[in-house]
Here is the input.
Amino acid sequence: MRAFIAIIRVTFSQTLRLRRAIGLLMLSGSAAGMYLLFMIASRRSAESAAWQREIAFETFIGMNIGVLMNIAVPVVTLIIATSVMGDERRDNTMSFLVLRPISRFTIGAAKVVAAFVEAFILTGIGTAAFGILVGIKIETFSYVVPLIVGTALATAAYAAIFVPLGYLLKRATLVGLTYVFIWENGIAAAVPALASLSPWRIGVSATAGLAPTDFFELVPADFALGSLSPGAGGALVKVLVLMALSAAFMSYILRRRDLAT
Amino acid sequence: MSDRTGVVYDLGYKPYEGERLGRAGAIKAMIKDGLRRSFGIRRKARKKVYPWSMVSIALLPAIVFVGLAFAIGTLSPDAESPWGGHPQYIGLVGTIIILFVASAAPNLLIPDREDGVLAVYSSRPMTAWDYILGRVGALAGVASAFFLIGNIIMYIGFAALDDDGLASALIGNLDDFVKILLTMVAYVVGYGAPALLISTYAKRVGPAAGIYLAVIFLSAPFAEMFRALDFAGSRYGTLISLLQHPEVVRNWVFGESQSNTPLIAVGFEPWVSAVIIGIIGVATMYLMSRRYRREL
Amino acid sequence: MTVNPALVDDPTVEVTGVSKWFGQKVAVSDVTCSFGPGLTGLLGPNGAGKTTLLRMLTGLTLPSQGEVLVKGVLPRAKVERYRDIGFVPEESALYNTLTARDYVAYAATLTGLSDPGAAADRALETVELTDDAGREVGGFSKGMRQRTKVAAALVHDPEILVLDEPLNGTDPVQRAHLIKLFADLSAHGRTVIVSSHVLQEVERMTDRVIAIVDGKLAAAGDISAIRRAMSDIPYRVMVECDKPRDLAAALLLHNDAVSSVNITRDLIHLETTDLAALGTAVARQARALDVRLSKFAPVDESLESVFRYLVGGR
Here is the structure.
């Protein structure tokens, strides 16, 4: 356990430096920033309160999916998760890590957890800020927790996918970005059956499952959920399995393959 | 007495006595190196996978468009292909172009700084501007090539299907080709300059690409928000839409109707996008020169 | 008693028929050797396969063929085996954002030591980095970075120490200190394997070397014995005296062991295939001619000369 925590701690110091953290925090806070602009704009509107609430709600849904889950969460997590193993490989510190009497699964699991925690600190703050602003506008904070849970699960899923990628490929971030912008936002958007292969949609399904029912009325279901049903429990199970598989896969390649240089 | 003669040649160090190409030669060499680096030419096979995958994905719509035009023309000679031409193709591959530039620009600038190679450049008879021109020229070259390949396939393909014959159509549609070139400049500068700017200051290739993509794709919804704001000066916020300026120029050049882009909706003329692109280009060159004059 | 100098009687690390190839490139070809308590120098020119061999000894790289056993087991078979191994890689392998103390303490924590801080302090004191222990490794000089890596490798007191170019970047004082440290460790029964290009320093550290050239085992054992085994390459000897021409002429006339003579000022440079016979002959002739000898020294028994012969012939 001490080794597990030590690996996470050192991974934090290696990959989350101040300048990068500030930049990524701004990115994850982009949805909150945009919603704030919207709130300023709508204050000047002469429309009725009911109409404004409806627009506020539509805007919230649109930004949650179009900005937060579609761009901010994947990109922030991708940058962090590919660095977690990628930096070890780049700095030639892999030999330091593996020549220790700790199981390869412990190393793999620690890295996946480190990537998730580090990325979620950033995406979670951005999501919480967004959720609170939305709550102020639509006069209910019942969406804050579902949003944070959805972000957490999406972040964890991306971390699970991108950590091994960062070890295996030197251009992992570029491959990951292609996955996000072409596969997830292009191909998986057109084919609903592929939604279960899309981490952010898994996150949205969790949010939809926990949120009050009117969320689901406005979610553009085909694009945002595809073949997934709303439900936090199912999403949680999927993500936990994904993380376990990722750690197991890392363990396998550390045991069976020559150490990457 | 023998008439045989012999000579011993000194095989020691001989200074180079060939042609010296000067700064222009250095810039050309850097552009060539940049092209090779971006497309993985003379590199290992795995360095070619990403760029040529992007090229393949980008060419597919062009081939499909020409194929569909041929099929429709065969089935119904008077009908026109509803799948459009160059503006529609460019709109389809816009994301691919952005992804390609996201990969190319950081790979041109960041390894030189982080691997300590700038010191080698600074020991050569070249200035910081030579280096910048070499690298910017390389990105402009690869992005232009990437942009043009599909458009040229369509241009020649449509011309070959034209009732007037290939040669006549090629000459007759030259104005279309001019429009393609103008749009190309807008896309290359509009998407390339921000990528170069971010890569000038970033330390790692991957995060630079990620931040560039996030900035480009998030600029559109931000512009949308500024459109909704209703106070004096808020309309100028729509000009931050880096994603849409090249698209506005494309539609303007080809005479297409502007989709509901925020900056058009708030009353700006399309030429404003061209000016913004120009400003971004100039600002990028200025900031790069400041950075690299320190290093070189 | 072992007759093969590449093998030791009581090995802790055994390499049997090991080869490694990367695609078409053969990095190590059919190497069989072993390492035991004491210090062994691993030599070879750049690209010879030394680093690849060391990475196979530690389990970082798997052999394409053959077997490496560390205390009787495959390195990767049991992670517990890594308690017995300390490795100093040639490349940087440092977390630049950590202080030296934190870095070494991290190594201690991962190895399961109960008091990582105290262990780190002891290890840093061993390499004389106590004063800089609180500084970030990213700001260290090359020599300090090397010593930090050595401290991390020593913190858990391993039985086997594998060092790939540990003297790189160190100044003469630091180098002397590290050499003494490695010698002390080997004297206390540890298996120390050092790969280095600094041949004079390897010569100071140990008499036993394993030489790899083009991925193959080129020589093994005691340095002098290796030189003697190169019977096809004549010894070069330098003699300094007050009557070089007289002595040189006499040696040529009366001694078949001398194959060539060269005189520069007061020095005679001789080549011979029988060093012992030449020594006797020089003494006899010097007495007979009343020549005052001031120096008789073989010039190519050093490790550097042996290495040069192994790599490039004469």
